[in-house]
Amino acid sequence: MSAPTPYHPPVKRSVEIAGHKTSVSLEPLFWDALRQAAQSEGLPINALVAQIDAQRIASPKPPGLASAIRLWLAARWLANDGQYGADQ
């Protein structure tokens, strides 16, 4: 039996940032990575997304929230020498 494919359309989920609900569409691979990152940071997903959102807003040319989450996860992965899920 082969592993499930990483190619899946985005899934929309609701998150709460600073008391406001918003929806974010990410591929399941990124939702899984975000859950794992939140767990290793000792934070709820909403709190981690709020941190990513604050960093994104402070950037000179802020991307959309979903892109910011993907970029944050990729930067984290690269900072950990490509070790998926490694603690920083």
TrEMBL record:
InterPro entries referenced in this protein's UniProt entry, alphabetically = RHH_dom, RHH_sf
Q: Which residue numbers delimit the Ribbon-helix-helix domain?
A: 10-75
* Top-level taxonomic group: Bacteria
This protein is called: Ribbon-helix-helix domain-containing protein
* Organism of this sequence: Alteraurantiacibacter palmitatis
